[in-house]
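Recall that a protein's primary structure is simply its ordered list of amino acids. Everything else, from secondary elements to tertiary packing, is in principle encoded there. The following example makes that idea concrete.
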Amino acid sequence: MNDLAVYLAAEARRLGLESDAPEHAPPEAVQTFAQLVLHELAALGLIQGNEELGCWAAPRPGGH
C-alpha cells in the first residue's frame, strides 16, 4: 500500500466517511474529502491543478 492511500484513508476516517453507507455522509465531509483528493491528484501531476504560489503545481518527486 502506498503512502497516499494510507493518508487518504486516515482523512476519510477523520471526516467520518468510513461507514458502509456513504450516501448518508454529511455533504460537507464528502466535499472536503473530494477537494483533498483533487488537490493530491494535482500535486502528483495527474490532473491540471491550481498554479498559485506555494501550490504543488508540478509532480512531486518520488521516494518521499
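The radius of gyration is 13 Å. The helical segments are 3-14, 27-43.
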